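Re: that backbone. Tokens:
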């Protein structure tokens, strides 16, 4: 059977996840982790830290009510109302995987610091990453260049 390519970010668990909206503090693509913007009220930006203690607040989703899909980015000037969800534990999402990363099914994933996911590496408590979820498929984002998408179960 051929692998499926989802057209939505939340694959399972939307009914348990909490939906939010906020202004974009920059370019955000559905599937990216977002965090509250500390410098502008009521805005979100891509999650920019990959260490414990800088929490993400959700994952940007497509705004299908406006006819926009998972490849239609939000921005701070034209399409600026970001729809995102705080996914429930156990929810499955179609997130962005960092460029150059090779992930096997079952790998722990954390923030790459640019809205995408990377392998969650814990070498010491000082450099530990919060684990966002577990890869539900193997994806090689080393070639072609650019962020790939990956199915992830949220922890």
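Recovered sequence:
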């Amino acid at each position: 059977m051929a692998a499926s390519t989802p057209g939505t970010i939340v694959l399972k668990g939307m009914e348990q996840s909490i939906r939010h909206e906020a202004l974009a503090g920059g370019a955000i693509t559905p599937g990216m982790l977002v965090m509250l913007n500390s410098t502008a009220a009521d805005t979100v930006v891509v999650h920019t830290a990959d260490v414990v203690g800088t929490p993400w607040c959700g994952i940007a989703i497509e705004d299908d009510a406006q006819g926009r899909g998972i490849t239609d980015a939000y921005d701070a000037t034209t399409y600026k109302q970001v729809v995102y969800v705080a996914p429930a534990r156990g929810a499955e999402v179609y997130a962005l995987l960092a460029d150059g990363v090779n992930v096997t099914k079952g790998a722990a994933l954390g923030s790459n610091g640019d809205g995408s996911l990377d392998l969650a590496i814990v070498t010491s408590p000082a450099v530990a990453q919060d684990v966002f979820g577990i890869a539900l498929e193997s994806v090689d984002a080393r070639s072609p260049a650019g962020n790939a998408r990956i199915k992830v179960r949220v922890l």
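The mean pLDDT is 89. DSSP finds no helices and 13 strands in the chain.
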